[in-house]
Amino acid sequence: MRPATIGIVSIGDMGLGMARLLKSHNYRVVTVAEGRSEHTIARIRSAGIETLSTDQELVVQADYVLSIVPPRNAVATAKRIAEAYALPSTASFRDDIEDVDSRPKRSKLYYLELNAVPARLASEMAALFDEPTTATETPGRCHFLDGGIIGGPPTSTQDVWKKPSVVLSGAVDLPPAFKTLASVLNMKLVSPRIGAASTLKMSFAALTKGLTALSILSFSTAHKESLLPELLALLEEYSPRTAALATNGVIGMSPKAYRWEDEMRGIGETFDTEGGWDGVGVGVYGGFAEIYRTIAEDTILGEERVEHRVRGTTVDDAALIIASRKSSH
Length: 329
Ligand SMILES: NC(=O)c1ccc[n+]([C@@H]2O[C@H](COP(=O)([O-])OP(=O)(O)OC[C@H]3O[C@@H](n4cnc5c(N)ncnc54)[C@H](OP(=O)(O)O)[C@@H]3O)[C@@H](O)[C@H]2O)c1
Prior knowledge:
Distance between the termini: 65 Å
Shape: elongated
Bound molecules: NADP nicotinamide-adenine-dinucleotide phosphate
Strand content: 5-15%
Number of strands: 10
């Protein structure tokens, strides 16, 4: 029996960790590098990930495709993969490869949408892929699972992996080999309803990244008034756990601010639509989105990369840079 082939689009910070984790468990990991930046190409090379030339090759070779891209690119990525899968020759090319569970007919591709998007977008993407509802097979459709990743990229120390949680939702039939993959990637099916996993992810991120947004406002204001040491000392004395969360959040957020802008807007929409907050969600999290947009576009912190940190690695430096941002008066 051959090992399952996992396509990952794309090899960013999270995709790289997932690829390394899968490869360490003897999965074949493939990607498409066309159009990607030198940073992504360098990550692909660093992990020895197999690069395929086209999206069609990817959907022919892969048993599962994991979409791990900035939220703003999630729908375009889903369309790309759906179109490649629907090409008339894809089905026959796929049939030339044996099924991973040794069944007579190869299972359809599984597309796992793992990005931080609201349930509405998850449903829109599911419509591009979803299962046929009648007995007549609709060619060109593959299995779709909604999902979200909670926690940082997988890392290993002496072969012991620290993994994020991957929550999934959807009502698809899962093949026998999925059980092992789910265990390797720490995946859990939380609901048969598309959108549920996305809502869970957004509800979690609202708290962690929301606190970081509040910390940015608080620390930069205290810095402008030359009160940051006093604020940090009071936090340490009266709420040390908040102090740790706030400082770690501010130190770590710079390379991610560009994609958290969209995530904050998605959280606002989630609270209004799924939570019935009727505009309050977008009001609050639209403000947080603007904070992250400011960091990414109006300060040098927007140039930071996870693999090469220069500025904003201490609270003092981050607060100094944010307090003197372009839009500050
Ligand atoms: N990193 C984390 O700690 C973390 C934690 C939980 C969840 N996640 C989730 O993981 C996803 C990706 O985050 P990340 O940290 O890996 O981001 P990242 O480090 O910024 O990487 C994003 C990757 O997507 C690629 N990309 C950009 N535009 C694309 C497009 N139009 N089509 C295909 N690929 C494209 C980028 O390529 P270029 O280099 O060419 O731009 C890069 O390889 C997000 O949805 C996020 O919610 C991340």
